[in-house]
Amino acid sequence: MREQSRYSPLFFISIICFFIFCLTTNVHAESNKVSFDAEAVLPENQQSDASYYDLQVKPGEKQNLILKVRNTSSNQIKVIVEANNALTNKNGAIDYSNHGEKLLGGPSFEDLISESQTVMLAPEEEKSVVFHLAIPKQGFDGTILGGFYCYEDTDSEDKKNEGFSLRNKFAYTLGAKLTCTDKEIEPKFSLDEVTPGLENGYLTIFASLANAAPVIKSQLDVHAIVTKKGEEKPIKEFQKKVSFTPRTKFKLPLSWNNEPLKKGTYELAMELKDEDGKTWHLKKSFEIKGTDEKLNDQAVKVNDIDDSNLFIYCLFSFAVLIILSLIWYINKLRRQLK
User: What percent of the chain shows pLDDT beyond 70?
Assistant: First the structure.
């Protein structure tokens, strides 16, 4: 009689699955490992202790800005260093990751700096990346804000691993703030348009904001309310933290809290307050059209009934039920008395 194996087929399948899991986990960890670092070589006209470029420049001046990029991995890598304008993104934060974005006037950082570069690095190799900065002869007032956005070019690796890519892209950002004169510039905030739409599938209104002046205003407290046109009672209220970069424009999403969009004319009022307590007030009327109500069908979630009114609806229904019951009972008594 054949001796029965002490190990079932399920045991061997479990062992194989364990090794596959370990292998894929290791691939995932390796693909997400930071493969390089970058730092700014600060020049003599650096005007603060910041780790980014904070430069006092002169009209017509030319200088080199140097970055050190080092490969921390055991593989050859390709690093792209983009010279980009600073923008305010939809989250109200300063963003240096978009190349070629136009500002509301100039000069901009991309106007003054040389082209973006690609650097090949052998394992553990460090290289200096040099950019040329040229200030206009007439100089400029206010602040020019930009930065160097450094990331590994992994397109070829992603193509090799197509169908099983777990790679997260990691980037270094080295900011560059340029000032040329001591002239104080006031911000020029505007609320240009308000439109309904979807943000990640959720009902939202988008406030198109701008700062046309060459000045930075960081971490402003933004208090916003929506009212029906001609009414004072707020139907929506928002609190945000927003940083405005010089000459920026962007759309700030304001959640409609999963309530259905309803046709009508509304007004958005915003108060912006800086850390010193100075305030700016913006206001814009907007319309939700009948065609915009189609967004309710496309949204991930829509509340059929306003939760705040649910209790009132239930109470009203209960009262109607009691009244009908009393009427029935009274009619029944009358019939019995007859």
Answer: 82
Residue type, 46: Q
Enumerate the β-bridge partners of residue 285. Answer: 267
Helix (H) or strand (E) holding 202: strand 202-211
DSSP 261: P
Report the Cα 229 to chain-centroid distance in Å: 30
Containing domain of residue 141, as a range?
26-179
Residue 165 to residue 182: CA distance in whole angstroms: 50
The encoded tokens of residue 314 equal 């239930």
pTM of the model: 0.79
Enumerate residues 6+ apart whose C-beta is below 8 A from 197.
Answer: 204, 205, 206, 295
Q: What is the total count of domains within the chain?
A: 2
pLDDT score recorded for residue 320: 80
Contacts of 4 (CB under 8 A, 6+ apart): none
pLDDT in tens, 128-146: 999 999 999 999 999 999 9
CB 68, CB 51: distance < 8 Å:
no
Q: CATH no. for residue 64?
A: 2.60.40.10
**Mean pLDDT (whole number) for 136-164:** 80
Structural Rg of the chain based on CA atoms = 31
Query: Is residue 116, in this structure, part of any structural domain at all?
Result: yes
Q: What are phi and psi of 10, to 5 degrees?
A: -60, -35
In sequence order, what are the beta bridge partners of 202? 199
How many of the other CB atoms lie within 10 Å of CB of 278? Answer: 12
- 58 has pLDDT over 60: yes
Mean pLDDT for all residues in the chain = 87
For residue 304, tell me if it sits in a domain: no
Which alpha helices (H) appear in the chain, and where do they start and end?
9-31, 109-112, 155-160, 295-298, 307-337
Split at pLDDT 50, 70, 90, the class of 208 is very high
